[in-house]
Fold:
Amino acid sequence: MSAAIPVTGHASAHAENDESKVRLGMLFYVLTDVILVSFVFAAYIWLRAYNTDNGWFPAKYPLPNSTTTGILVGLIVVSAVCFYVAYRGIRAGNQTVLRVGMVLALVLLIAALIGQIRFMGQQGFAATDGSFASTYVFVSGYHVYHMLVGLFLGLGVTIRALRGKYSAERHLGLVTIGYFWYWMALTPVLFTLIMTALPPNTR
Amino acid sequence: MSEAQAQPNHIKRATVLWAILTALALLVYVVIAPQLSSWGVLPKLGSKRLDEVNTVLWLFTLLAIPVFTLVVVYAGYAVFTFRSRGRPSGDGPSMPGDRRIQRIWIISTILLAAFLFGYGLYFLGEVQAAPTGNVLQINVTGEQWLWNYTYPKYNISSTELYLPVNQAVTFDITSLDVQHSFWIPSFGIKQDAVPGEHVKISVTPSELGDYVVRCAELCGLYHAYMETPVHVVTATEFETWEQGQQSIQVTPQAFAGPTLLAAVTNTTRRRASVASGSVGAA
Amino acid sequence: MKKLFPSYLSGAILAVIGFIVGQSYVYHFVGSGNTPKGPNFTEQGLVLGFIGLLVGWLIGIGAFKYPITWMLGLKDPDHEEELRLAGANTGVSRYFRFTTDHKVVGIQYLVATLIMLAFGGLGAMLIRIELIRPGAKAFPPGTYNTVVTMHGMLMILTTITFFIGPFGNFIVPIMIGARDMAFPRLNALSFALLVPGVVIFAFIPFLGYGQGSAAGGGAQTGWTVLGAIADEGGVGVTALVCAVIILGASSMLGAVNLITTVIKMRAPGMRWTRLPMTVWGIFGAALLAAIGTSSFTVDLLLILMDRIYKTTFFVASTGGNAIVNAIPNTNFGFGGGSAWLSQNLFWFFGHPEVYLIVLPAFGIALDVLTTFSRKTVYGYKMAVIGIMGVVVLSFLVWAHHEFVSGWAPEIRGVYMATTEMISVPTGFIFLVLLGTLWRGKLWVTVPSLFALSFIWNFLIGGLTGIYLSDVPADVQLHGGMFVTAHFHYTIVGGALMGFFAAVYFWFPKMTGRMMDERIGWISFWGIQIGFNVAFMAMFIAGLQGMPRRVADYDPIFANANLVTSLGAFLLAASIVLTFYNIVYSWVAGEKAVANPWGAKTLEWLVPTPVPLENFEEIPVVTGHPYDYGESEHMIPIAEAPGGQFAG
Ligand code: HEA
Ligand code: HEA
Ligand code: CUA
Ligand SMILES: [Cu+2]
Structure:
């Protein structure tokens, strides 16, 4: 291979490349998580089609309460909206919008997290009650895991926002963690859609 | 190119070498192939299906030999003719790739693959075709670590498989615990036994004799010993056997430990290993 | 104190403490009241222990330092700090710490994968000792099943790491003209995850005895860990599952890092059409790892759920009763699960994974042979299309492992078609290899010999794969030794030979010393003879009808197995020779110059040992990596340049 010594120094093009590198990396990590969740959804669909001996969801069990489900999904979606507003705020250089938005996003996330954990304990069925119950519990558990990761990342962004680490020019954290945040909010929406399209109670 | 003309035509030489070696290898293979069964390299023939499988293997080998020799002869020829002794003093010729040769290679491999696919599809049709007419159904239930057979037509059950010769049978296969695989090597059939699912396969045994059914899916501790006899008998022998059997049991026969294995698989090695305790310990 | 924390020593200490705390006390507190204090080797206790081990280790090596300073918004690390973390001026101790320099991580990976390979090989030797005669005389079947499972799984884990790990980390960044990987910390983290994963894996043989489980001790599931059998196995299976989840995460992190590095960190002028073949091979492998691993992770998580929470993903029911209830020590509820789900999730990962093993070997064989025959790649584009074609197609063929599973038998023809199609892009590589050798001035050295043996061995493996892709033939051969022989020909004959070629080739660059030539030759011929004898005989056993994964077998298979065992012993002895060669040369080998082979890719143009940030100035690439024969670019072969632009 032939190579020559560069005319320009290496520092100039670096910072720009640094940001896009982090964005791409985060996008890939979120993408692997998207693939993973798709396989979980695939398992749901699979078990509904292929469960053995009608072992999908015994009629005697109550379905997950749809109002509570709606509230929980709503909380996390609104949290994502807040995150986006905070991001738009800092892009315009507005620190107040950033701070308020991030605190709101974080509080909503914590509310959704606590609600979700309590809700899981109140189901009329146990994880052992057939393949719908199994998948439902697993998806809920994975969602809790998502929210725990989100909690850590959100705490970081919020603290850094409060300490004034972000500016209109430098707010990479809000972009990259945003990828994760929106995906975290999208997951329960998608699952609710799948559950509506392929409901547990009819077979 | 001018440099190349001064030298012998290597491509031609390698090709001739390839043709000779391929012809030799094919000849040897065609001569020994019919002996493989009698040498014990292929299982004892118990059904026409195995014959078909052996034909596939035969044809694939016939096609694999030229491909194999092609690659090996050209690579070997290049290494032996052009290599430098010790560290080379200069670079080789610049050969970034010849479009024509690449095109020939791509087209011929696609054709080869397409042929193999077509041939496979044709045989697949035969394998999947359900037998018509008088078919004997046998329900096969895999269980750790034995096979239970029930013959609904005669209302009997057994842990050894008896089959009348030249009678088409359909096995309805399932499992009670984990996945097993119902394999009769001499018939060329295999089907996984999956808990909660029923899958059917058919075969017509065509030779009298004793064979084995082996479990071909790792199913836990005694997977190696999940091997039971299969008897292909004449229609009258089958009738006598059938009448001596007990009627269908409500619960299938359960695995009673390695001693049962010693009883059902009457080979000395099993008894020896059970006696020495090497089988008993987990 | 400052020297010891953070280091691997403090990591190990905290890992032990974490394990004990998790396994003995946490369960007592979070468990359902009547769970006793003290060591408990139940599923839950073990899982908590493993989590404790992982967390303790990560704290001990200081992996949490950056995330926490980031989270609290403290001082952002500057270049000085980065260099310290990369191990500037710290001598050998940087190899025993959480170090971000890609070359340190590469060496750590090399040593770790060699150790894993040795243990996997030890398992293979146990297998061959048991099978040398019929009768399960060496050890009982339960142990045998565990040995096979551990051999298979450990070897697969080794082979999916042993290119991306050592060479992807050490060589690829230099090859593309970068100072480090895109995310040095994540890079260090992916190695930091490998270690506890392997440690947890080492628990398996000691777990699961004496609880009356029908499945016995260890993990007797096979490397395929199919749902139904994994659900009923002893607690060893839990260790297996936890270990593989962690190792999967490690490989996914590593893969994503590599992909980003190749996309974003190439030096100016390093166009996609100028990437060396090794980079293409490893890049393809990383794509497969990043996309494919998820489905196996999901499979393992579902197994863990089934085992701990008694969910019923893979537990079937018949007539309202879960049938696995018949087995002692299991207490599943309603059932309704599907064993086929596990099989599909596994193979959707499992097939891309086998190509992930071999793709880097394609690239490495090409790089080694171009270098030693002093010729350019014969059809660069064709090789790249071949590799990328394999990447795409490998996601479409997984069901060829399920031809006899009974799932969707109607569409077997489709998978037969895609499987046979994949031999076309694979064949591209063979034409390119042949064309590269043709008229080349091949310099026969140990690395070029290993690269040549790749052609012979992998060809046999690939062609026998075609037999298996044919449904009627596979119906007979599936689950038998023919399959085992096929994949050892592809993996040992293809990937392992590529690995040895790579080790002998890049050893001078990585360690600054040459490997011993004579030991290399002896080892090479021993490996070729032993390997071919062993696995040719295994093809015969397979045709005869010998099933896989059996501790004991019918005496009709005795001859073939005897030959296989003898061949395998020769193979292992020769591999031990190469191991010896590595250790000996590392310590006492002849000192290497910067470019001992006269190669043209960038990593040979920097000095040996490679300085901390590789390049003083990022090079600008102006030509193809293989412009041999175009004399104006020629680099003098006899005298290594010693680094044209390095300082
Ligand atoms: C590195 C790993 C590797 C590689 C590269 C391959 C490559 C291939 N494999 Fe293999 N395979 C495994 C590892 C690998 N395999 C493993 C580990 C298993 C078993 C897992 C288990 O059950 O435990 C397995 C099992 C396996 C099965 C399932 C068997 C069964 O359990 O029933 C099948 C079936 O189709 C198969 C097919 C193929 C094919 C068609 C290829 C092809 O890609 C090969 C292509 C290459 C060539 C064909 C040679 C070169 C080409 C030419 C010279 C061109 C001209 C040729 C033609 C057009 C034919 N493999
Ligand atoms: C992925 C890579 C890989 C590699 C490299 C190997 C390498 C080898 N394998 Fe492996 N094997 C598998 C993957 C691999 N295998 C898989 C996936 C299975 C299926 C498992 C299952 O069914 O679930 C399997 C199964 C398997 C079986 C079938 C078991 C059965 O089904 O009953 C056999 C039998 O002979 C076998 C043999 C060998 C041998 C002899 C080697 C030889 O190449 C090994 C050569 C030896 C060494 C590499 C080590 C040399 C070093 C030492 C001996 C230690 C010395 C110590 C120090 C120097 C410290 N293997
Ligand atoms: Cu049943 Cu193996
Ligand atoms: Cu495959």
Summary: Residues 163 and 232 of chain B are 5 Å apart (CA to CA). The two ends of chain B are 70 Å apart (CA to CA). Residues C 351, 354, 397, 400-401 surround copper (II) ion (ligand 4) (CB under 6 Å).
